[in-house]
Amino acid sequence: MINVFYVAASLAALIYVFYLPQKIFLGPEKTRASFLRERKDAVYENLRDLNFEYKAGKVPDADYHSLKSSLQDEAATLLAEIARLESKAASAPRRTRG
Predict the structure, then answer these.
(1) What CA dihedral angle connects 11, 12, 18 and 20, to 10 degrees?
(2) So what's the pLDDT on residue 17?
(3) Nearest to 69, CA basis, from 43, 92, 87
(4) Is 29 left (phi over 0), alpha (psi -120 to 50) or beta?
(5) Under 8 Å CB-to-CB from 37, ≥6 apart: which residues?
(6) Over 70: is that where the pLDDT of 95 sits?
């Protein structure tokens, strides 16, 4: 009788753990534009940190200028792609329900 209980409890635990109901909230859908905005924020934060570390004397001049240049290039690339996606979305015809 106890073995049946353990089997039933194990089966219930497995169903509970591995059963995926049809309506799972996975959060908002991540778009390319939202990913790029998050990456842009991270690059800006890295630039702020780099400037702080440089002013504190923890980063040599050559490294500072090299890192700053690469982060600024990445930020410019991200901003250009964000602008391209936003202009593409703005020019796309809106669908109306009818």
Answers:
(1) 140
(2) 74
(3) 43
(4) beta
(5) 82
(6) no
DSSP per-residue codes, 52-87: HHHHTT-S-HHHHHHHHHHHHHHHHHHHHHHHHHHH
Q: Which tokens go with 50?
A: 């780099």
Of 29, 40, 21, give the one whose Cα is nearest residue 82.
40
**39 alpha-carbon distance from chain centroid:** 7
Query: Which pTM value belongs to this model?
Result: 0.67
CA distance 11 to 94: 50
Amino acid at 73: D
Reported residue count of the chain is: 98
